[in-house]
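Protocol step 4 of 5: obtain the predicted structure for the target chain.
Materials: sequence only (see below). No template structures provided, no constraints applied. The aim of this step is simply to have a reference model before the mutagenesis design in step 5. Sequence pasted as it appears in the construct record:
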Amino acid sequence: MNPRPTPVEAGRSCPDVRREDVSFTSRGQRCAAWLYRCRAETPTPAACVVLAHGWSGVREQRLDAFAARFAAAGIAALVFDYRHFGASEGEPRQLLDIGSQLDDWDSAVAYVCTRPDIDPARVALWGTSLSGGLVLTTAARDRRVAAVVSQVPYVDGLTNLPRLGPAGLGRMAVAYLRDRYAQLRHRPPHMFPVVGPPGSFAAMTSPDAEAGYHAMDPPGSTWRNETPGRVALQAALYRPTRTVAKIACPVFFAIADNDVVTFTRSAQKAAARTPDAEVHVYPGGHFDPYFDALFEQVVADETDFLVRHLLPPAG
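Step 4 output (structure tokens):
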């Protein structure tokens, strides 16, 4: 029997990757995307992995690095911005809404499944942080998904609440109420920071949060350090760990052993409830998988997983 190619072998067969600007529609609005493909033309439709970022993230914040590696291994990669973020349409800007972003994931899957150059039976999802939970929810309700990569995932909002402390919870409640008041008065959203130093008021204030987000941000990035107060209640009640038992496809969990943003133990519990889970625990914190030596290890393992589950045997 011919073995499947390893990521290194697949990458050597396709050393060059091209990126195309594409778009799709979600709820009547355009989502901007990049489609990464191997330059070598193949006679059959390609496998594809769909990627999008976490809390307020945009595609240029290191998702291009992951997508290029997957494409070099022979797997097309669609990287998109949610509505209201980055290069996509949607007003007001920075409107983080979990239900809307799940709609965007559904629309992205529908888009690649209708492209003649993509095999709809070999479509995978890749998510990180908040989107690491969104891809779990999407896969639980869409049996077309062939595989999932869930990296440092946000899986249980209720377990995240205690890290805010009493003062942080109070500030979050005030931000929520001020934003709801703005909605009722048809005013612009009330925003608060996504990241800030320890002791400040922001969605993420761990010692690595502010430096980690800014390290991902390239010159000219569209990312903005603000998020609407209304998402506070949504995030607290969002618990994709409750639906992972319904996922029918293989799931790769990339978990950081010192994750104090989405919590190591929460991700491990979600993985234990997932029927077909492959769990990898890496040294470091929430932002370390995006950079340097740990990035190389994580992306190699994720590529290997996608190759095994999406590519046919060599030869």
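Step 4 remarks: The radius of gyration is 19 Å. Residues 165-184 form the longest helix (20 residues).
Proceed to step 5.
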